[in-house]
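[agent] plan:
  1. take the single chain provided in the ticket
  2. run structure prediction with default settings
  3. attach structure tokens to the ticket
  4. add a short note for the reviewer (M.T.)
[agent] executing step 1
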Amino acid sequence: MNRDKYCDGIERRDFLKIGALTGGALSGLSLTNYLQMAEAGAIKNPKREKAAIFVRLAGGPSHMDTFDLKPDAPSTHRGEFKPIKTNVSGVEISELMPRLAKQCDKFSIIRGVSHNLAAHELGSLYMNTGNRPLPSLRFPTYGAVISKELESPRDLPPYVAVPNQSPGPLTGYLGLEYGPLSTGATPRAGQNMRIRGLSLGNGVTLEDIERRQNLIKKYDTAFSELEGDDEILNSLNKFDQRVYDMLRSKRTRDAFNLQKEPESISKLFTEHPFAQSCLLATRLVEAGVRFVTVQLGGWDTHQDNFTKLKEKLPELDAGLAGLFAALSAKGLLDTTSVLVTGEFGRTPKINANAGRDHYPRAMTCLLGGGGMKGGQVVGASDELGSGPKETGFTPDDIASTFYHSLGINPEKEYHTPSGRPVMIVRYGKKIKEVLS
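[agent] step 2 finished; step 3 output follows
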């Protein structure tokens, strides 16, 4: 299958945008030194800031074969995989995810999530923003809002996408300065990840960067009156200053270096790129990055659904199990909110090509960490997995709950460049069973 396009021809585009936030917590202290001081007791009860990890399953995974199996449904629907028990009594997931089954106490499985946008791009925009797409307005994705709302150290990118995030534009009406730093590639086990634009090469030194920055400041002063009303130019200036700060930061360089990860943590992950991306996400959050998105594609299974899932589900299993275990081991689980979702589910009835087609009327999401309650199933789909058993949940509800876990009021009102007032999430209601 061509992994560069979905079945409907939409390309997966890379977006390389670095945002800026004010702040300066720990800006003069490297992560390594800080952790050493904390371990030695020099820092009493180090305060962990809120952060989030968004795992995007691009293409739309089948809820019927992952977290909402129907073993008693007819053979036309139930599929090949059997449910297995987890470490939570009464909760079962697919047999192809045995590692994650041992981590189910750390997250909630939200079943009966439903909407009616069956196209990849529209479904993704809905699930990535919590707002139903409008032709007249582009809503900001989770990363843009969290970059704006949660203060971060100036020498770190507030928002990192591994390896990229789509669809776009990602920042909507908030502007370019709240976009992600896209790594452009997935990390390799035990290696230092070099990020384009953040790595010095070809004989360039920090002194060279310093001289360039001083020259830029002179021109900025000379032409400051001309740029005041230019939103794009202002965003690029903030971008340039943030890159300069990150280039000088040992903390940033260390955050992307998996060689510095203790063996006790790195052994929780396989060497698969998605698992290593999840490891990198925990490392970035530990360093002070506020939002990390990790993408795993390949879920658009119109044909040979079960053959393809025998490859994809072990990848997902290893990555997510390592993610939750590592966050717990690092003491980050209570302050790091995790959302795992695709853009929709897939048809309960198996098609003539042994596949499952687009199906937004029923899907499953995972919500964990960040003070949210784990070890439970919330909501349900009907006997055939064709829709919510009762009222169900919307993408707006998922977003509202996710933001609440981060201390962000989803009803907060922003203003577009034209002055139009818009709430972060217009219609969502928080899921009370998840917010303990």
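[agent] step 4 note for reviewer: The chain has one domain: 31-39+51-195+232-423.
[agent] ticket updated
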